[in-house]
TrEMBL record:
InterPro entries: Uracil-DNA_glycosylase-like_sf. The lineage of its organism: Bacteria, Pseudomonadati, Bacteroidota, Bacteroidia, Bacteroidales. This is Uracil-DNA glycosylase family protein. It comes from Hallella bergensis DSM 17361. It comes from the Bacteria.
Length: 165
C-alpha cells in the first residue's frame, strides 16, 4: 500500500479500527494482507485527521523499525505542515523518536514525555497540544488493544471520539 503505515504488521489502522469502530479488522484486507486504502482516506478526511511524517528520510541501522535503530537523514518541514493545516489543534507523536524531533524543533520543555501525556505549545499564535502515544510498530511490545486505549483517550480529549470504547 503506497501510503502511511503500509506494513501489514504495523498496527496503526487496527488501532483506528478499535477506537472508532470497536473492530480492529475494520480497515484490514486480510485476503490481500493489506488495508482498505480508499476507506481509510475517506474516513480520515471525514474525521479531520491528517497524517505527516517527522522525517522524510531515515536510515535503518540494524534492519528493524525500532526508534533506537533509526538514524534521521532528513527531517520534515514541521512548520510547513502546521501552516498548511490552520485548523490543526493537536499533533500526535507516535513513538519516542517522533516526540523527540517535535519537542526539540519547537523548543518544548517536555523532558521525555511519557506515553499518554500531552503538552500545549504555541505556534504562530495558535495553541496546539502535542500528544505522545505508543508506536504502532510491532517492534514496540504492547498489545494492540492497550495501544488503542491510549489513542482512544487522546481522540476523546480532542473531541474526535464521543463514546467510550
Amino acid at each position: 500500500m503506497p501510503w502511511y503505515y503500509p506494513n501489514f504488521t504495523n498496527d496503526m489502522w487496527r488501532i483506528f479500527g478499535i477506537c472508532f469502530f470497536d473492530d480492529k479488522m475494520h480497515f484490514v484486507d486480510s485476503e490481500n494482507k493489506t488495508y482498505h486504502l480508499e476507506a481509510l482516506k475517506n474516513f480520515l478526511a471525514r474525521t479531520g485527521v491528517a497524517l505527516f511524517d517527522t522525517c522524510l528520510r531515515i536510515r535503518r541501522t540494524k534492519g528493524t523499525a525500532s526508534d533506537k535503530d533509526l538514524e534521521v537523514v532528513e527531517k520534515a518541514d514541521l512548520d510547513g505542515m502546521l501552516r498548511a493545516l490552520p485548523e490543526c489543534r493537536a499533533v500526535v507523536a507516535a513513538g519516542q523518536l517522533a516526540a523527540t524531533i517535535f519537542t526539540e524543533h519547537y523548543g518544548i520543555k517536555a523532558g521525555k514525555m511519557k506515553m499518554g501525556d500531552h503538552i500545549e505549545f504555541q505556534f504562530e499564535g495558535r495553541t496546539i497540544s502535542l500528544y505522545r502515544e505508543p508506536s504502532s510498530s510491532r517492534a514496540y511490545p504492547m498489545k494492540v488493544e492497550h495501544k488503542a486505549a491510549y489513542y482512544a483517550k487522546m481522540f476523546h480529549d480532542i473531541g474526535l471520539l464521543t463514546h467510550n470504547t
